[in-house]
Fold:
Amino acid sequence: MLNPADQAFVAHLAQAVPGLSLGAPEPRYLEEPRGLWEGRGGVVAKPADTAQVAGVLRACHAARVGVVPYGGGTGLVGGQVQTEGPAPVILSLEKMAAVRALDDHVLVIEAGATLAEAQAAAAAQGRLFPLTLASQGTARIGGCLATNAGGVNVLRYGNARELCLGIEAVLADGTVIAGLRRLRKDNTGYDIKDLLIGAEGTLGVITAASLRLFPQPASLGTAMFVVPSPAAALELLALAEARMPGCVSAFELIARQGLEFLDEVGPPVHQPFAVRPDWMVLVEVGLPEGIDPEEALAGLFEAAGALVEDGVIAQSGAQRAQMWTLRESLPEANKRIGSISSHDISVPLPDLPQFIAQAGAAVRTLGDFRINCFGHVGDGNLHYNVFPAPGRSRAEYANLRGQVKDLVHAIVDGFGGSVSAEHGIGRLKVPDLERYGDPGKLAAMRAIKAALDPLGIMNPGAVLR
Structure:
């Protein structure tokens, strides 16, 4: 129930922005995937175009009303839900999903389009937009850019930032940044695009983007290889990149614990090895015409020697899909088990094996835990998640949750790593940013926030406090 002041502002907003869709927040706008927070919202505004976005922000700026930009709601650090303070305007761009332009090199698309829709638009042109996430059917382009999303193809194509040539955005006071250029080179002053990408809606709202497209690989090859250790996985990656330069799209590390979770709670998936290996990697390559992917991966297997103990090479699109279904089902299995503490971290590639060994030994000094360590090892990003012992619930470890997180993050920091590799800061990791962030960088971030959002209306409480 809105209080009278909120009701008056909603009435003013409707008058100030003619035709704007306004409504009470449905539960989906107040939830986040891990169930850690319940959000607040006075009203959901669904603008139909950039002019309406600008109108909403001008009105909110004048009235000092907070704005929470909302994409697909798939973020894992609470950036999409405000949990305290005055009820904000939830600004959803779901009505803005149009493809504005498309050619062989660039897709210009509005921020409310889902990632899957962007991929489909590129494919219809015979091109590839390579950003790939498990949540791509729900995650929206604006949210992917606002969080600088990563995913499984970063190794070859880069994060969302590297895939974006230009953006259109609206700043806190309603100023429109008309930056939808299609240029690879543009050194005309400060790069506002790169400032807003990764800012998690705290500096402005991205309304559209010019996205880079790539040739579709002539053929795809996918395999799962059993490796004796994470160190062997890194050596195998180096060998794969040497044998197929520029062609390794994904290189995912999977631990036995994740496979055992799938056996224990599902989802039911095909597992390629009867005996669950301690470690295996999922490798995908996109190859040019004239190179047989199965032969290329078989050659890698043979050249690897002791680096690979067993392997399965996909012989069809269906087998390739099975392999990826297994990988993408790991987070759901984790959710069903219920983690005590989950960590999205990155460390320099050479340090990955030592980090895994050191963190595992340290965490187990705190109690009886199961650790599922998996992820995008090709770019140094691991999802390092700690779970209860069999037969116990995470509630029994509530008193240890903070200690586990602090211990893991301290080890990450000791290796010169990041406590947020691809999920962002949101509200969950604000204390971690303050603890581990460089003081000079934090001062610069606060100065930028004060310059572009002096009233602090953009996503209050996220990233900075």
Summary: The mean pLDDT is 96. The radius of gyration is 23 Å.
